[in-house]
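Field: COMPLEX_INPUT
Field: COMPONENT_COUNT = two
Field: RESIDUE_TOTAL = 236
Field: MODE = joint
Values follow.
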Amino acid sequence: MKYLAPLLLIILTGCSTVVPVTQRFPAVPQKLTEKCPPLKMLEDSPKLSDVSKTITQNYTAYNECAVRNTAWIEWYESQKTIYESITK
Amino acid sequence: MWILEWLPNWVFGVIFFGGFLGLLATYALKFIPFLSTYRIPIQLLSVIALCFGTYMLGAIADNNAWMKKVKEVEAKVAKAEVESAKENIKIVEKVVKKIEVVKVQGAEVIKYIDREVVKYDTIFAPGGACEIPKEFIQAHNDAAKVPE
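Field: COMPLEX_OUTPUT
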């Protein structure tokens, strides 16, 4: 009996198996990781055209940022769907 | 299971059938002197071999089933990685196109300002009839400032 117990223990340790499948989290496209730039300020005593230009540049910066943000959401949703399809 | 990596599967089949035959022999071949003399130890060893063989054959079947599942998951992961890469390309292409459109639109507006709004610069110049109030500039800059 004293020999049987360690033998059973040794056999049972064989049941500890490491799962060999690993899945890497997909890398985010670099284009989406660009930070939004700070908005431009108006200088003191600006011309009307300068005001107008600064506002336009800020709107453009916002729109670019919004495109990247929307793409981020789309990227997450699509990667989530792909990832979940593995476990189904 | 480490023991399955050390020994080939057929070894456990041999152990199982050895145990089975040993047990059978102690009952069926009692007339052989060796078997009748060592009947109890042979039976004991045969039972142990039978149990160990059964356990290991079960483990082999279980291991095979798991390996099959692992192969299936590996295939799914490989397929998912390809799909993921395709999706990334699609999204990046879309972003590049949209940002290009936004930039072109901004550039068009700047051109318009340089052509049309510029005409009003003198009216809205500091000291002019319609000077842009400092409060307007202050309000704009406060709104554009990133809160700390």
